[in-house]
Amino acid sequence: MKTITEFPRKVVEFPDMGIVMPDGCRLSARVWMPEDADDDPVPVILEHLPYRKRDGTIFRDQLTHPYFAGHGYASVRVDMRGNGDSEGLMDDEYSEQELQDACDVIAWAAAQPWCNGNVGMMGISWGGFNCLQVAAKQPPALKAVISLCSTVDRYADDIHYKGGCLLLENFGWASTMLSYSSRPPDPLIAGDDKWRDLWLKRLENQSFLLPLWLSHQHRDAYWKRGSICEDFSAVHAAVLSIGGWHDGYRNTISHLVSNIEAPVKGIVGPWIHKYPHYAEPKPAIGFLQEALRWWDHWLKGAETGVEADPDYRAYVMDSVRPARWHPERPGRWIAEQEWPSSSIAVEAIELISPDAGPSTVASPQTCGLAGGEYFPFTFGPELPGDQRPDDGLSACFDQPELTKPIEIVGAPELEVLLASDRPQANIAVRLCDVHPDGASELISYGVLNLTHRNSHEFPEALVPGETVSARVVLDQCAYRVPAGHRLRVAVSTAYWPMIWPSPEPARLTLSEATLSVPLRLLATGDEAVFAEPEGAAPWATETIRPANSERHVDRDEKTGIVTLSIADDFGEVRDLDHGLVNGSIARETWTIHPDDPLSASGKTHWTQTLSRNGWSVRTETWAQMRSDAQNFIVSARIEAYEGENLVFERDFDEKVPRALV
Q1: Which helix H or strand E contains 179, and what residues bound it?
Q2: Which of 51, 289, 416, 430 has the most CB atoms in a 10 Å sphere around its CB?
Q3: Cα dist from 270 to 31, 283, 531, whole Å
Q4: What sign results for the dihedral spanned by CA atoms 271, 276, 279, 281?
Q5: Dist CA 25 CA 615 (whole Å)
Q6: What is the DSSP letter of 437?
Q7: How many Å apart are CA 114 and CA 108, to the nearest integer?
């Protein structure tokens, strides 16, 4: 990445600009703007997050926000209520209070003498979600958003449920937020006489969100609120949607470009869950230059050509050897002026014909261990590996060797007639690229709780032995399969640890199955070109402890229990400006027996540390989840230390009834 230090306008920074909400709650904002903004007002770019501007998102903030400010914007990075250096309490993700606070910040910003009255909102992940949801509320000053790695559907395409199946990321993310939100404000910002009271009040009101999320196992009003797919027409601001093929939120770009009536464009690269000017696998792109084109047009009225850009630009990844990490993906950029594209034709591949005999599948509960993380973000061993171990536990339908390459661009779908021997069963479908030597690379996958085959809101139990139809939509993808390779469709009844298992082992009998594959004419070269990545001067730190990620699968040959252990040490660094030292370590353990779905268990342990000179705090959080046939059984614990003294402890224990359909 090229570091830019000279900008058209000189930048000044305000590390703690207070924004007082109508109820008196003070939010803390870090603001960068041109030095002369009072004399020459500028638009505002807002990022509204719970992830701590002081030590959480500071790496990416340093690259991004001074860059925007130097090009004539006031970049406002707000700690959400109840997090970081802001006052108040947070009770859930995307609450009405959170969204209203964002609307109030937008109104406040638009009224400042240094603002020209126009506001844009941006963010990745949580910030990508809430900028779309805020746009649907239509605050008058909000003219444009840039949403990265986000969703339009909080139920069906977030970290909670997928295809009606419970994602284990539901538990993982609740554990993460329990740890993230347990940290105190910085005494240098909140004040030596106030930070501790704010911290203890935050801890006393801390929520462990897992029981709440588990209590909404169907698509009810809880999930509909904030899901902009319920009414795409509510979004009037111009939307630039960006995502990555190695991220869990790869479907949103197509959904937005296909459905929003406001101006909208989409870009999908080969990336994990990161901003694309520093993301991997490479190639990264000049995201900040692309963002400026968007902001300059919609917030300043400049003619930058963004309206004429193709609706959908995507990176078609070439076939590679399976690996848990790829620093780079070879391929090429394609461009579709309109999306959905008339240049993409759907080819139907009959996997099981009515005249052929049925195929059965009853996978061990350990099927899925080659699937990787739902949304990788550590630049470590989190990608799907060689699929052959999972293929061996699935019913596989191999196609003839390709005589010429094909490009799959879009969402494959499987239509299937099947019968189950249990009233509830899950199905997982993987589309793989099989190399001549048998290596199997994951192209895309989809999962479905078969009781949700007709509706996520009103599921219907299966009648054992009765044949029903189901449609499994796989994730969006853009992938070139070379000549000499084969397509494989692998069907399983388990996908651990991506989804929580059914209460009983299930056997499916497949009587008919057809795969629909969206094929595009081969691109001969790049159809879209992006500038090389640029950024402002990076965060200046001293490394105290280097980061490290590890992932191990162990099988106990005596008990049969299989354990996946993940340790992500995010390291510890000292900020060379304000001196704050921060560090964190996350540990996950997932265990299951191949023959017993009720043996499934997840455990997490997070450690967070903050220190400066003689002051130090530490929080430890633990969480556990398991289930029996009727209930999910969850527990968690927080311990908070000032120095070596335990100043707060709290336990959470709850049973949540398990929906059997």
Answers
A1: helix 169-180
A2: 430
A3: 31, 7, 16
A4: positive
A5: 26
A6: T
A7: 11
Q: 273 in helix, strand or coil?
A: coil
Whole-number Cα distances in Å, 339 to 14, 257, 258, 313, 344: 42, 7, 6, 10, 10
State the number of CA atoms in the 13 A half-sphere of 291 facing the CB: 29
Q: Residue 367 carries which DSSP code?
A: T
The answer to whether the CB of 623 falls within 8 A of the CB of 635 is yes
Which of 638, 582, 639, 646 lies closest to 609, judged by CA? Answer: 582
β-pairing, 477-481 with 331-336?
Answer: unpaired
Whose tokens are 């109840």? That residue is: 82
Neighbours of 96 (CB within 10 A): 12
Between the alpha carbon of residue 607 and those of residues 85, 168, 543, the distances in Å are 20, 21, 18
The candidate with the shortest Cα–Cα distance to 512, out of 348, 345, 346, 365, is 348
Q: What is the 3-state secondary structure (H, E, C) of 442-468?
A: EEEEEEEEHHHCCCCCCCCCCCCCCEE
**Distance from the Cα of residue 32 to its chain's centroid:** 27
Q: What sign does the CA torsion over 414, 415, 416, 420 have? A: positive
Express each pLDDT in 12-53 by its tens digit. Answer: 999 999 999 999 999 999 999 999 999 999 999 999 999 999
For residue range 294-326, what is the model confidence (pLDDT) as tens digits? 999 999 999 999 999 999 999 999 999 999 999
Task: Using DSSP bridges, classify how beta strands 581-593 and 562-575 pair: parallel, antiparallel or unpaired.
Answer: antiparallel
Question: Could you identify the residue written with the tokens 């159809």?
Answer: 527
Please calculate the CA angle 209-127-549 and round it to the nearest 5 degrees: 70
Which residues, other chains included, contact 577 with Cβ-Cβ below 8 Å and sequence gap of 6+? Answer: 540
CA distances from 609 to 30, 49, 189, 385 (A): 22, 20, 17, 33
Distances (CA, A) of 474 to 1, 37, 405: 34, 48, 21
The per-residue pLDDT for range 564-582, each reduced to its tens digit, is 999 999 999 999 999 999 9
Residue 85 · residue 54 · CB < 8 Å: yes
Phi–psi pair at 201, nearest 5 degrees: -65, -40
